[in-house]
Amino acid sequence: MDPEAEAARLRAAAAAGKPGAYRAYAELLTGRGRLDEALPWWARAADAGDADASRTLAICHKDRGEFAEAERWYRTAADRDGGCAFGLARLLQEAGDTAGAERWYEHGAALGSIECKTNGAVLLAARGEWDTALARLAEASAEGDDVAAHSRRAIQNMLRDLDGWRAALARAEAEGDPEEAYEALRELLDPERRAMFERYPRMVAEAEALYAGAAAVGSAKALVDQALFIARDDGRWAEARALVERAHERGYDGAAYVLGVWAEENGELRTAEEWYRTADEADGGHMWACFNLGVLCVRQRRLEEAERWLRATGADGAAGVAGADEEDGPSPFDEGEERIVQALRDIAAIRADPERMPPPEWEERLPGLRARAEEGGPDAWFAYADALDRLYRLPEAAEWYRKAGTPRALLALGRMLYEGGGAKGLRMVPCYEPAAAEGDAGAAYDIGRIHDEAGDRRTAQIWFRRAADLGHGRAAWWLGWTSEERGGDPQHAERWYVRAARSGLVPPAFLAGRSMVRRGACAEAEPLLRVACEGAHEEAPYWLAEALRGLGRAEEAERWLRVAADAYPDLLHRYGEMARLALRDPG
């Protein structure tokens, strides 16, 4: 049957309310990428009691970042449908409502959802209810769930290893041997176990207890590793730092390095430098303390000092970097040495580029700004901090930004420390929040970017939406991309691309125009594609030609196709038959 005739038939059946027609027509529209038109028909199907339609609606709204609407649709059928119960539980879990997630996983499992049984069991294991979790995973595995079988084996192996660590620690405790106590737990810090601690937080508490036992035997190193596990909880940060300081007092040289790293991640640059120097002064020095000191100095344009610290690492490749020939083949250095060599190359590149050095005119303004800051208030303090920031005097700038304390000053502080000072993004979010609360689109976008880089897509999506609603083009671009690439929702994506294009961004102007051409809206696409052509987007001339062909303007289409062929021959060649079609008359 002709596709359009079939679509008309299904629409008429749906409009007449025939059984199953709502879903059938909604599925057809969804398959054609016309989700906006499909959603009302999915809603009619859901209102008629179709639980799968409720779940589909929830998924669509979740992909669009409309989490409240997603939750509403899941709840319409979660009490009677295991799939909706599972989706609701996942949504609540991602939002941090673990108790709510557990309730709905349990309810879904009672309805027969194996996925709910498995995920609910994993949540029980996450808080240490091992026996109950293993029993439920065994049931789900017997019902054919491979995920349950894998999770059960992983937990059993984890518990076996835990028993082994406890036994080894007990032997060391009996002998009163601090080194043996520490060595008994070395495997706990294997990078391959990182996922285990993320999925099963109870294992963090188990590891903390084991290291506390090793520390009680007398191991100062164990105090540091105990602190590393405690530091996963932001509310126990002071406790973790105190343990590492105690390890330093007890003579463990590596503790000073850890304190330096933590201080740097928190944006405490002076403190970080002090701890790195302390680590280096310990017997035998500390290669990575020297490296981090070198990088700190590079960021502050203390280049001679930076070079000294980097060469003090003792890396074999550091000495001859200035004359290194990059065409000599693969680097003979290991990853650590390569980082040192690259840092030395960065110093050479900075020296060669006046734009990357402190601007002399700001050095000349500094005394006057300092005088006004000493007599003035927040505005004068911000102006002085800004000048120090431009001069790469980051520790002093941080002090004056903090003294100013305004949303603008805190935002500048956060950006300085995160983007140029080595601080950890999530630690700097509080610096961005006051400006975002006042409607600063850039601050909202930066918070979204930090969460996106940390792997928290949900929180990132919320902040990008706020930024886009405030007019931030790149945030709108991100939302469009995620809608199209992750959610398969081209209509929603197109709207965000259009909003992004209004801010002057070329790539989303192209993406919006291409989307319009694909759905036949060539008149709407033309101005956007012309913007993309003016911005030298390599694919835009071809798609502008397609738009013009669709509008019946064959001669103009051919001219743009020739532009595409002249400027981007390789790209046009990849279109193959499509490129030749663009030259044909639209009739």
Automatic annotation (TrEMBL):
It comes from the Bacteria. This is Sel1 repeat family protein. It comes from Streptomyces rugosispiralis.
